[in-house]
């Protein structure tokens, strides 16, 4: 059986990317997982055990439970603060409890994430591929935008995604775009990527052959011109010799 040591836990927190105000939802999920791992997340969801009444005797177990909660709350709060950039640490280090800190971050940055969602949606639908750049490179850029959809729990039907990407193909791919749009069967996103890669490789190969052929014809033309010049010069020399 494997045990998680304090050293391992500290290493996990150290590897966590510090929150700087961007992509809060993903950072919060990672932080949540780590806080659960070190068994202190409960202080965010469970209230602090109450103090005993004025004339109420408290059991040792209850006292220990409250003291443990206080200690874990400080540990939890410290981990959250240490997972933030220096600027945000300075802004939030005076917040008293882990729950209050967690809630303040949610109120501030979940709202900003909602704005980010609208930006990501617009970024995908407004994206247009252009000639002069690798289509696969642009396809991968679109996929990175779609990865952010998943991070924000945004769902988009794969058929709509594939159809939209086909429509985004550059002008020089018009015929290929039309051939994809007239296929009877639906195409998966990964399949579309395969089709695009094969087509781009074929185009590169054809371009290379064409450039090689043009280079050969160019050299051939130069040879013909040179031969004609040599013949002309030879005829001129012969005529001059005959006249002498």
Q: Explain this structure to me?
A:
The chain has 244 residues and is mostly helical. It folds into two domains: 6-51 and 59-111, no CATH class; 121-243. It is built from ten helices and no strands. It is elongated, with a radius of gyration of 34 Å.
Determine Rg (CA atoms, Å): 34 Å
First and last CA, distance: 109 Å
Strand and helix order: HHHHHHHHHH
Helix proportion: over 70%
Number of domains: 2
* Number of strand segments: 0
- The residue-averaged pLDDT reads 83
Uncertain segments are 1-10
- Give the structural class: mainly alpha
Quick one: biggest sheet? Answer: none
* Number of H- or I-type helical stretches: 10
In terms of DSSP E residues, the strand content is under 5%
Q: What sort of overall outline do the alpha carbons produce when their principal axes are compared? A: elongated
Compact summary:
The chain has 244 residues and is mainly α.
Task: Outline the fold blueprint.
Layout: H1 6-15, H2 24-37, H3 42-45, H4 60-82, H5 86-92, H6 98-126, H7 135-151, H8 158-167, H9 174-181, H10 189-243
Helix pairs in contact: 4-6, 6-7
């Amino acid at each position: 059986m494997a045990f998680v040591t304090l050293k391992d836990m500290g290493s996990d927190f150290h590897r966590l990317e510090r929150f700087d105000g961007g992509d809060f939802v993903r950072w919060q999920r990672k932080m949540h997982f780590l806080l659960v791992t070190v068994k202190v997340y409960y202080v965010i969801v469970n209230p602090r055990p109450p103090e005993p009444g004025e004339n109420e005797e408290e059991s040792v177990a209850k006292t220990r439970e409250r003291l443990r909660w206080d200690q874990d709350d400080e540990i939890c709060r410290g981990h959250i603060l240490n997972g933030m950039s220096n600027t945000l640490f300075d802004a939030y280090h005076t917040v008293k409890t882990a729950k209050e800190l967690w809630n303040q971050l949610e109120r501030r940055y979940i709202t900003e994430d909602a704005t980010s969602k609208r930006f990501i949606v617009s970024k995908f639908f407004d994206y247009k591929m252009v000639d002069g750049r690798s289509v696969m490179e642009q396809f991968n850029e679109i996929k990175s935008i779609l990865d952010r959809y998943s991070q924000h729990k945004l769902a988009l039907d794969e058929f709509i995604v594939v159809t939209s990407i086909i429509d985004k193909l550059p002008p020089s791919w018009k015929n290929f775009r039309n051939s994809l749009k007239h296929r009877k069967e639906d195409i998966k996103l990964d399949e579309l990527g395969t089709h695009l890669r094969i087509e781009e490789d074929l185009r590169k190969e054809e371009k290379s052959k064409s450039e090689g052929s043009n280079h050969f014809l160019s050299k051939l033309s130069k040879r013909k011109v040179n031969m004609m010049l040599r013949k002309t010069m030879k005829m001129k020399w012969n005529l001059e010799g005959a006249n002498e």
